[in-house]
Amino acid sequence: MRLKIDENLGPSIVALFESAGLDVHSVPQEGLSGSPDDKVLFAAFSEDRALVTLDLDFSNSIRFPPAGKPGVIILRPALPLLSQLRQLAMEAIAYMKTESPRDSIGSLSRGAFAFSRLRWMQDNRKEQKVCPELKGTRYDWFKNEAAVEPGQKPEFDVLRTSTLATARAYHIKTMLQELYEQHPDDAEAWFRRWYYWATHSRLEPVVRVAKTLQSHFDGIIRWFKSGLSNGLLEGINSLIQSAKARARGFRSARKMKTIIYLLLSKLDFRLPSAVPN
After folding, report:
1. Mean pLDDT of the chain, nearest integer
2. What is the DSSP letter of 6?
3. Which CATH architecture has domain 2-116?
4. Are strands 112-116 and 105-109 parallel, antiparallel or unpaired?
């Protein structure tokens, strides 16, 4: 079996496939890191190699028709943990001993191999450049997963579990929210695994956010020891900016300081109230 391993799987997974006696090339070894999906898949198919990846974009059988091609195998771990990736890789190896991924797109998750023979069909989907079901769902994606009740919006439930890039970004976001639920001893390793997942997602906005968080890595990890954040300062600044907006600015810094002290000191001047007539 000839395989090309995508960059988002890492060298340890490449070694695992090699140890099984498979003919393996990896995307980084061939200088294709960061290349568009089309280029990566073309490189694999031109060498008659099936692509093994984490990237759900490759499951789009309209954009990447599998008929007559070596095939695609997508590993889908429940969490971005190396142990889960290794388990899925071993299951994929066991599967390929008896079956071939040719002409198909395979999805392996939680011990179940859903290998569907997705044939290319010449129909109206070929002309479809956008997903019309996304219309009107913008603010749904801003909600936390726990805030969306199952069945509350069936159409959105379908989109959330789809292979759309928007759905992938949504799951990466919700996974990041679990960082502060980790034990302090595990937080650093957990964040690094999430960072690797995010930066290898080929979703440019997600990659930018991940790199921004990485630049504040020391402060993020320090929270697990100190329990301190800049939340209080942000709240105070919000009150100050609100006062500036109401006053349309101040004539001097002295007057601005006076208003800040009055707002934030919570003084009780016990001013007399108006006596009704």
Report:
1. 79
2. -
3. 3-Layer(aba) Sandwich (3.40)
4. antiparallel
